[in-house]
Amino acid sequence: MLVLLPPSEGKTPPAAATAPVDLDSLTAAAELGARRKLVLAALAEASARPDATALLGVGESLADQVRRNRDLLAAPAAPASTLYTGVLYAAAGLHRLDAAAAGRAEASVRIFSGLWGVLAPSDRIPAYRLAMATDLPGVGRLAPGWRGPLGAALDVRARREVVVDARSAPYAAAWKPPRGSEWVTVRVVREVAGVRTVVSHNAKHTRGILVGHLLRRQGEPPSDAAAVLAAARELTGAVIGTEIGSGRDYRLLEATVATTAGRRTLELVVG
User: Fold this and answer.
1) Helix (H) or strand (E) holding 118
2) How far is CA 66 from its chain centroid?
C-alpha cells in the first residue's frame, strides 16, 4: 500500500535547538536530491526579494514565514509527521501512532511538497512556505518540474502496490501513477436529506480519519482497491468528526468505489 498525502499549510516550527535538515538523509535522495537543491536555491532568492509574498502567492501577514525561506538549510528541522499540523494531519494523527502503526506509516505514507518533492513521515525538515502551484522564478512551475524525478522515485513501486491517493489537485498534478497501476483516489461528499454535495473542511478531516484507520487497523495492509473499500467500510456508522459551527457529529454513511477511465474513486459519504 502506498498512501499519498498533500502537505498542510499549517506548520509547527521545530524547536530552536534542533539540528537542521540533512538533504542526503531524506527519502529518495538519489532521485530527488538535485531538484531539491535547485528549488531550495531559487526559493531562497525569491524570498529575499521585496515582492516575495506576491511571488509566492501569500498575504503580507505571512511575511515572517516567507523570510524563513531565505536560509532553510540552517534552520531547525523536525519530522514531517510533527511539522505538518493541518486538518488532515490532526485527524490522521501520524505523530501519535503506536510503534506498529508508525512503522506502517513510514513504509506506506508519502507526503508531497512543492519544495521537497515527496517525504516520509520521519523525514526531518524545517518550516517553510511554498505551494506546489507556485511559478517560482528560476525554476518555473513546480508541478511539471517534479514529474520526472517523482516518476523515478515512485513509478516502480506504484506498479506493484495499491495507491491510495488523498492529495489535493495541485499536488496530484506533480505525479500520477503509471498506466495500469491500482490507483484509488479518495472523494468525500456530504449527504443531507438525500442530496449529496462536495465538502471541503470535512473532506480533509475524513481523509485523515481514513488514513489513520488504514495505518492502525489489524491485519495486512490493503493490496488492491477492493481491500481498500473493505477497510473503509469498517468505519461505516462511526462518528467521523464534529462540524464547526453547529457542533453536530457526523458519521460515515457509506463507502463505494467507482471506476471511470481506468481510475478508481473511493467515495466516502458523510452525514
Assistant:
1) strand 117-119
2) 21
Residue 109's H or E segment, with its range, is strand 109-113
How far is C-alpha 228 from the geometric centre of its chain's CA atoms?
18
Q: Where are the alpha helices (DSSP H) in the chain?
A: 29-47, 52-56, 63-68, 80-83, 87-92, 99-108, 142-160, 169-172, 201-216, 225-233
Q: How many domains does the chain have?
A: 1
Distance of CA 72 to the CA centre of its chain: 21
Query: Against a cut of 0.70, is the pTM above it?
Result: yes
Compute the average pLDDT of residues 174-194.
93
Query: Does the pLDDT value for residue 227 go beyond 90?
Result: yes
Residue-wise DSSP of 121-189:
TT-EE------TT-EETTTEEHHHHHHHHHHHHHHHHHHHS-EEE---HHHHTT--PPTT--EEEEEEE
Cell of 55: 511571488
Give the domain range for residue 223.
2-270
Which SS3 state, helix, strand or coil, does residue 5 take? strand
- Choose the weakest-confidence range: 35-49, 111-125, 184-198: 184-198
What is the spatial distance between Cα 86 and Cα 9, in angstroms, rounded to a whole number?
7
Strand pairing partners for 265?
185, 258
